[in-house]
Design brief:
By secondary structure, the chain is mainly beta. It has two helices and nine strands. It starts with a helix and ends with a strand.
Length: about 280
Amino acid sequence: MKKLFTILTVVAITTTITFAQSEGDLKFGIFTGANYAIPVGSDMDDLKDDIDDMIDDADDMGYDAEGGVYGRLGFHLGFNCDYYIKDNFAITSSLSYSQKGFNLNTQQESEQQVWVSYYDNNMNYYEDYVTLDYYDKSKVNVKLDYLDLPIGVKYQDDNGFNVFGGLLFSFLVNQNVKYESEYEYEQIQYEYNNWNNSYESGYSIVSDSDSDSDSDDYDDTIDDDDPNSTLTGFQLGVGYSNDRFNVAFKLNRNSNFGDMDGYGDDNKNLTLQLSTGVYF
């Protein structure tokens, strides 16, 4: 029993020492994970309100409409460095490729009830009640990719749990706007009597449809100006680390990423990140 107690004590002490960080420790690692970039800001809110109004107007006219401004799901990948200036306290920084931006989607469809009337070749009169379908959909994907450089401080307790935060600098490395649209609608096409083209002898329902997809730069679609090349902001996060692995949840907020034609420049990304990584 005494020997077992000694072994458990040694294991517990070793585990505590493993997770503790001492002054002068320097740790390098790589990490990756998922991004969800949420569009925020007063001008972005105005855009959201305008789309909501458009959806409400379409609903009032009998369409089944939906849409809005949504966040962009992406990823991040980079490397990090922690230098412990005191026991459990570190200067922390990283450099990572991070996907941000936003999506704008609208969709509306309807069923229109119409009466059709026509004569047969014997001049008998007929009426029908038919349903015509209408469908319209559009997507705009604004892709803004950055190199994120946060510089901050980190506290990690002896059990491996940590909190961190500091300044964030983001440098634009790629921008692209992809847009897609498609529609389909039905209409009545009448057939005419052979002996008198002024009378309909019947009808058919024909469908017309089209779709388009393309991509272009931000300054050719969203605004006349390019998006801002350098952003500032802050990063906050919590995580868990041992000598080999780490996992963290981060919140990044950037300054304005650029103007939007007809609105303004108060357009930002609030980015949620879930990261996992390894230390060298």
